[in-house]
Amino acid sequence: AACGLPAPADERLTELAAVLPASGTLPELLAGLDLLDRIDAGHLPGLTEPDDPAAAPDTADTARAARTAHAAELLTAAAVRQVEGLTGSEKPEDARALLELAQRADRLGGIRLTDALARLAADGAPLIAAAAGAVRVLTGHEEAEAFGERVASWVDGAVDSTSRATLTARLSGVLTVAGPLLTVGVGALDPLLDRVVELDDSAFLARLPALRGGFDTLSPAARDRLLGTVEERLGERVDDLDADDPAELARRTAADLAARELLSGLGLPVPTSPHDGRVPPSSDHSTAAPATVTASLTGVTRAGAPPAEATPTGTAPVTALPTEATLATPPLTEAPPVTALLTEPAPATAPLAAGTPAQAPARTLAPADRWRLVLGRSSDRLPSGAARLATALDELYGAGHGEGSRGGLPGRGGSGAGGGREPSFPGVREWSEELAALFGPGVREEVLAAAAVTGRQDVLAELDPAAATPSVELLRTILQYAGGLPEARLAALRPLVRHLVEELTRQLATRLRPALTGAMTARPTRRPGGRLDLPRTLHANLATARRTTDGTIQVIPEKPVFRSRARRSADWRLILVTDVSGSMEASTIWSALTASVLAGVPTLSTHFLAFSTEVVDLTGHVRDPLSLLLEVSVGGGTHIAAGLRHARGLIEVPSRTLVVVISDFEEGGPLAGLLAEVRALVNTGCHVLGCASLDDAGRPRYSTGVAGQLVAAGMPVAALSPLELARWIGEKTA
To answer: 87, 22, 82: which is closest to 701 by C-alpha?
Structure first.
């Protein structure tokens, strides 16, 4: 089309409408729709000439416009169908593609897309589900206030490492597609704003790394704008225009001093700000202020009279004069350190009497300071204690990315382009100790694991194998770096990898083995081991039957018979054909762990084939999950047909062979070859199953178009968790 060849372009346009809807992925379909938009808008001038010079000038253009509209309708419908395949996606790119697709809903496919978004928001993985919810707000299918309440509830539910990781993913999904929604949408921002402010210090600090990780999705400039909105909502934003003008500073200083003298002359308490190192303390009023002053994590708390209400300059406050008892200066008490908020339990106290109000939660961090920590901006305005928190998190997230990440932003958030006097970041060991002191050991492990995921190889040595929370994400990160590390560092990581693999395998085996131990048969036993077999129990205890006084017959079950599982009597062969291309990292780990558990079934012969553009038979390592994972090389393209061809060569008894293909079905080779291999496998008589990715929640990310054609060729395709896969195997081999 760009070469100005109308006839070949029309042929390709016809092929596009026939081929792309059936096999294209969502990015490919959106790219096709963009091209159709350019053609329809006349941005390709070579296509404005008619195919036949003798024809009327507008005949070819009219026909091409009709074909373009028809192709756009087909591609949009196919793109809406692809939304179902995003259920397990954890990629921000898919969230952005979802938003781009939703922007076309007003023209084509709006009703189907509305339903698909609702199902995705309810059943999807945290990131894509939150993105779908934000898209529904942007398209007017959900109220911003209701969505804001749901976002705030995510903060309430972040009580452990898993839920905090979910909180980060959900915030990332929302902010990827609808960052301005929180900046300009008051209804969506207010619930989250209130929740962050209302948390007590210990709860806030436990959630702070997760909140910071979610908002790091925004660029530094966007976070500055959001911070400005938050400060305005909190009433703490001060206009800093002309802040460097000496005359303006003099006028403001004179007004402040006049108000201070007026309050002092009336005998009213004068509120003082804690010394933060930027403004020298006053020499003549250093001990005269009896007001309540709470320093934000600076170590001193003064309890006493309530703070004076702000009044306009030059106007006396309408309050009663304080009494002598009110003006008495109370003793100073030490505020709890940051670590005490997380690690020290509250002291035991006597139960409160009826009607006694509960003690208010500790909140020493000012609301604006909390949001500066969450957004990672304006660290120079934080008190010293909170600045330590900001420094520790900046080591992980840095300056961010996107608009404003290179510095030079004026005002509150920017650090400018010049040099500064900030202390250098600590080393990994010092940073680890600082995280433990500020947030506690549990949150420390979460932050270090997040740093490893972002590419910090040096933090892997600081992870404690015994304390690290087993997760596929952490294991995936370590395995990514295993191939590029020297042997000395790899040997140091082996205890951590072994702990993660063993713990994940143990948890998986606990769930899978009951579904793999055989068919249900009855055997007599006096030990309760399963469900009671009532007919056999009655038959075995007829000798104890007796008639009671009311005429009923009672049977005393002296020899109860229970149902238990028995071993299979014949061997089966299971061939796991696993896609190890770059888009299948998490599923590859789950496949390897599942294969190691299945290899423990005595009468099941398990084979493990790993394929990308080439096929590797790793059956020899299948009983050792650690060795299997270290042998798998994730990356490359996808050639499913080659993997199926190799699996077909391993079949000896088709009726007792299970072939399970674990892939996202984004075939890189010709689709005709893949369909031919599937038909050949089905014709042999073996049991074939396509597993659309594999994870613990059974949430797939796959190409629905290709999967539909595989189903038509005879291969069932399902989104399964390892437990559901084990149940399918148990049913087939029973």
So the answer is: 87
Taking CA atoms, 631 is separated from 22, 213, 473, 619, in Å, by 35, 32, 18, 11
Separation between Cα atoms, residue 475 and residue 502, nearest integer Å: 11
DSSP state of 458: G
Q: pLDDT averaged over the chain?
A: 75
CA distance 730 to 734: 6
Distance in angstroms (rounded) separating the CA atoms of residues 561 and 522:
7
Other beta carbons within 10 angstroms of residue 538's beta carbon come to 13
Spatial separation of the C-alpha atoms in residues 722 and 552, rounded to whole Å: 50
Tell me the two tokens of residue 370. 């909390």
Q: How far apart are CA 707 and CA 87, in angstroms?
A: 15
Q: What angle do CA 591, 597, 599 make, to 5 degrees?
A: 100
Is 0.85 topped by the overall pTM?
Answer: no
> Could you report the per-residue pLDDT of 38-94, keeping only the tens digit for each?
888 777 766 655 445 554 555 766 777 888 888 888 888 888 888 888 888 888 898
Number of neighbours of residue 488 by Cβ within 10 angstroms:
7
Quick check: 96 pLDDT over 60? yes
The tens digit of pLDDT for each residue in 564-601 reads 655 444 578 999 999 988 778 778 888 888 888 888 87
pLDDT at position 47: 64
Compute the distance between CA of residue 689 and CA of residue 678 in angstroms, rounded to an integer.
10
As a whole number of angstroms, the distance between CA 410 and CA 390 comes to: 20
DSSP conformation letters of 345-379? PPPP-PPPPTTPPPPPPP--S-HHHHHHHHHT--G
CB 581 within 8 Å of CB 594: no
Helices (H), 483-545: 487-512, 534-540
Sequence-distant (6+) residues with CB within 8 A of 183 are 189, 222, 225, 226, 229
Q: Which CATH architecture has domain 572-733?
A: 3-Layer(aba) Sandwich (3.40)
Contact criterion met (CB below 8 Å) for 555 and 545: yes
Q: Which two tokens stand for residue 649?
A: 């060569």
pLDDT digits (tens, 9 = 90+) for 335-366: 344 444 333 444 444 444 444 455 556 678 88
Handedness of CA 154, 124, 165, 425 (dihedral sign): negative
Residue type, position 414, single letter: G
d(CA 333, CA 356): 24
Tens of pLDDT, residues 108-161:
446 788 888 899 999 888 999 999 999 988 888 888 888 889 999 999 999 988
Residue 721 main-chain phi, psi, to 5 deg: -90, 165
Sign of CA dihedral 59, 61, 65, 67: positive
Give the three-state DSSP class for 590. Answer: helix
Write out the E strands in 534-580.
546-547, 553-554, 561-565, 572-579
Q: Where are the domains of the chain?
A: 6-142, 521-565, 572-733
pLDDT at 568: 46
For residue 603, which amino acid is it? T
